[in-house]
Design goal:
5-stranded mixed beta sheet; 15-stranded mixed beta sheet; 729 residues; 11 helices; Immunoglobulin-like; alpha/beta
Amino acid sequence: MLPQPPPPPPRSPWAGGGGGGGGGRGSSRRRAGQRARRSGEKEAAGGGGGAARLGSCPLPSPPPPEWRRRWPGRAQPRSNVPCRRQQPQPSPCPGAGEDTRSCRGASEDGDMGLRPHASPQHTPPPGVPQATHAMLRWLWLLGLPLVLWAASPAGGCPARCDCAPQLRMVACPRRRLTSIPEGIPSETRVLELSKNRIRCLNPGDLAPFPLLEELDLSENIIAHVEPGAFGHLPRLRSLRLRGNQLKLIPPGVFAQLANLTLLDLSENQLVILLDFTFQGLRSLQSLEVADNHLVFISPRAFAGLLGLRQLTLERCNLTALSAEALAPLQGLEALRLRHLGIAALEDQSLGHLPHLRHLEIDSWPPLVALAAGSLRGLNLSSLSVTHTNVSAVPAAALRHLAHLATLNLSHNPIGAVPRGAFRDLLRLRELHLAGARLAVVEPQAFLGLRQMRLLNLSDNLLSTLEEGAFHSVHTLETLRVDRNPLACDCRLLWVLQRRKTLNFDGQRPACSSPAALRGDALWDFPDSVLFDYFVCQKPKIRDRKLQHVSAHQGQTVSFLCRAEGQPAPAVVWVSPRHRVITATSSGRASVLPGGTLEIRSALVQDSGTYICIASNAGGNDTYFATLTVRGSPVNRTLGSGEANATARNDTQVLLKFTLDLKTILVSTAMGCITFLGVVLFCFLLLFVWSRGRGQHKNNFSVEYSFRKVDGPAAAAGQGGARKFNMKMI
């Protein structure tokens, strides 16, 4: 004997109908819709909460068509199973004296008449297969309330919504709703109301759903949200308000959403973010504020968002990025700044974000350069600066990013990659420079990139990519050089030799020159013919006639050095002081197109022998020229072929020399006059001083006695002392 089935489980709002004429949230309109979906039965609904009857026993109504469409393959209660006893009484259950164990009304137990028929032998009723009988019994044991909730939309799902009981989900998109619909179960966890006509959210609209975890109100016409509208949703984790008409969010609207992790406010009409707009969202991890009319972000607008991990500011009217406004985001890891009108990234404007790892700057047309200190203080692992007007590799700004692993500089007007532009990025693994105007990659351009795995140079103006540009090609795994006018010569031979191990990312780089190979893909060449087609011609300087030029100081001097080869050779000059002069050199000396050396305002120290070096991948050629600069300044230009000065220049030299002599004579005369004037002034002072000392004795006498000398002469000369009279003038 089989055991009796267990008593029905407690009623749940997700289980649909119950006793008492109508099934809880049902209405006459819903019951009419339910009766219309029944398979031809016309009996009136009784106390079983909308259950169909055959004879005198209540049977489950057939599931609505949308139930079959949303959950195919689900076991469905059969409506053609006859009851054990069929009597014509209008009462839903047998009369007095009948066996009430075999069939009970829904009003008694709330099970909508789906309990298995009880009998001493537990055998199925006549005409009911054994498998069907067993299935009905197991449906009761394993979750009959869920089946009944899906089968009876009047009890647990609004008529204009779709419901998934196993997910506790109610979806009402595109229903033209103007408010929150009635009849939503209080145990709903996921509520989707997108693409409707809801205008505002008031306190209490969402209060009946305290277990709600995900709420989608995207693409409505919500223009105002009252404070407290989300106050009864402590479990809410995801809130989407994208595509509405919000212009201002009052502080405190989200104050009680402590568990919210995702907030989408994109595609609204927000103009300003006030202080403490997001106060209380301590668990928020992702914030979307794209496609708004933002012109200002208050300094404390993001206060309290200590757990924020991702922030997106896109298509706003911001003209500056406030470091003070971003300072509270201490936990921020990813920052996306797209389609903004900001012209410069100020020094250390992002330096207060110690955990920032991913920075994306996209579509800033006014941005022309990155300042040297704009990224100082950051510890980025990924940096993307795309669709701006940055015209050179920002080597100075990148110098501080020692842990950078991915760098994207695509779609910027960068024309060349100079030597050592990325030498400080020792951990860089991916470099993207696609869609730029890149025409030159200088030798050792990628010096120091020992860990580079991916290089994307597609869609540029490159004619070649030499092996000497890399620190080491052995670490390279993926190379993109497609959509470039490649010249297939010996410079690309290293690519073909590694084509079996290199990944071209499914693209086919092809030759643009020479004409015989135009359009041929690099991997179409057999190994046996590589050295026949991919060759280079050593450069040769055409005019090797010795150039010896004499010039005066201040002249402009030029030397010719025309070379030919395949590929076209690069020409540099070496000065007598061993300085290398190139086309990009600054100063008085530079190399013009065609290899001509030009020295402006020549000086005496420029004299000596200059060396022209023409080189390409096939070799090099050299040429010498001599310059002698005399000290006399001349206002004329001396070319490499000039031997004598013209009469006009001689006249200018004589005039200039005459003017210089007059200047010297005038200066000398002025100096002499000044000296004589000073001397006369000194004598005048002495004269005045002497006159101020009073009368002086001009005459005085001096007596002088001669020393005695032995001998006759001495005796004869004794006559006494002699006197001298002296007069002072």
